[in-house]
Amino acid sequence: MNFSSKLIEQSVEAFASLPGIGRKTALRLTLHLVGKSPETSEQFAEAITNMRRRIQHCTICHNLSDEPICQVCADKRRDRSLVCVVESIRDVMAIEDTSQYRGLYHVLGGLINPLEGIGPGELTIDSLLHRVASQKATDGEIREIILAISPTIEGDTTMFYITKKLKDSPVSVSSIARGVSFGGELEYADEVTLGRSIVARVPYRLNND
Amino acid sequence: MNFSSKLIEQSVEAFASLPGIGRKTALRLTLHLVGKSPETSEQFAEAITNMRRRIQHCTICHNLSDEPICQVCADKRRDRSLVCVVESIRDVMAIEDTSQYRGLYHVLGGLINPLEGIGPGELTIDSLLHRVASQKATDGEIREIILAISPTIEGDTTMFYITKKLKDSPVSVSSIARGVSFGGELEYADEVTLGRSIVARVPYRLNND
Hints:
Strand order of the largest sheet of chain A: 4-3-5-6
Helix content of chain A: 40-55%
Number of domains of chain A: 2
Shape of chain A: globular
Radius of gyration of chain A: 23 Å
Mean pLDDT of chain A: 88
Number of strands of chain A: 6
Structural class of chain A: alpha/beta
Strand content of chain A: 5-15%
Oligomer: homodimer
């Protein structure tokens, strides 16, 4: 691409350094900002630098947070006996969007992946074990750890590791239910999901049971 | 989407205000920046605010430029007798990328579109006419105006308007060639292009003519 302006080129390079944004899109975004007032660009830049400068990880659950303790951990109305263990903040948001879960979280920050050099030490597993062990410190007794982790090789390894570490602890460890999705047609479900959902069948209960 | 952090939310809103970026993509970009150093975000923001604060329109051709006169207009080696009239800076870049044109440009900043309230007054047509009329001021005699404008209803209107305004001027007005693209198969060309390319046929010349 042939830029007649160094300033435009620098802005395009900046946008194109973001994942999934190519140079054509970067140029479109740059020209969009040129078409708006300078204040619009200032506000845009301010929101991003401000976020990056002030964002921190919650000291309890490692979720991204504005304060040393995140909104979820600080919320006294939430059920402090449940801790849902997830890979990333994206998973926290997905679960929060369902409005079905009122417990706390623990964000691992990744999954055990020896091929990429990510061992348990790189994740927040020690922090989770410490959280379970020092119950008094987190005001409230953790009774159940819910593993909401993808059943990939890395996910299975991570779940296996955490479960093994918690074997002698009094908390129970559960995993989210997997099977054919609600409203999903059997013929369109993938073979592994359908096969496992038959093996892991549950007793059928009437709604008014 | 349920954000546990106001800072993340503000950054996502900022990205999502750009065209073609939804909230999911905005979150991905935000989390990408969280994973990088604060300096990366500062530099990203700096490139954009710096660009927006300092960018200006060339006083001669209205192209975006770092200086009052853009690189193309300032380049003494370019052919100052040719002026290519285009809709936007994107078209300038597309033509520059071909390396086939060594003349100057004139960026209209849009096309005449009465439905959206864009008349000739909103565009830089007066500036173009002035450029042609006051030849001395632009050091060099403009001999030809090349219209490189899309043949849409708005484009045709704009070309018609400019041509009519330049009727009594000594400059000749041309339009870029249109037809079946080089290397294009006839059967895949659209009907309008193919039809017009037959009507507007040109004498066949051997290469060594």
